[in-house]
What does this fold into?
Amino acid sequence: MLEHHGLAGVEAEMVRDYQRGMSAAPTILAMTYQRLRPLLIDHGVTPEEFDHVQALLCDPEVAIDGPALWAAWGTRAVAQLG
It folds into this structure.
């Protein structure tokens, strides 16, 4: 996409973290799921499945692969003033 918009020398890197249950990202995810619980149950998740996932997100013995965070960059030619 960056090359399509005129950038050259495009490069990128991705970082993915690894967190234990009860750390920041799993806690936020558990809180989000809790707010969505009625909707998830309405769409077929059983209360037992929901409770199991919540327990995993709160268990420091469980490691969770976090989201991929991407950074990309490139250069754009500068027009010469005549």
User: Anything to note?
Assistant: Residues 19-68 form one domain. Strands lie at 8-20, 63-75. The radius of gyration is 21 Å. The mean pLDDT is 93.
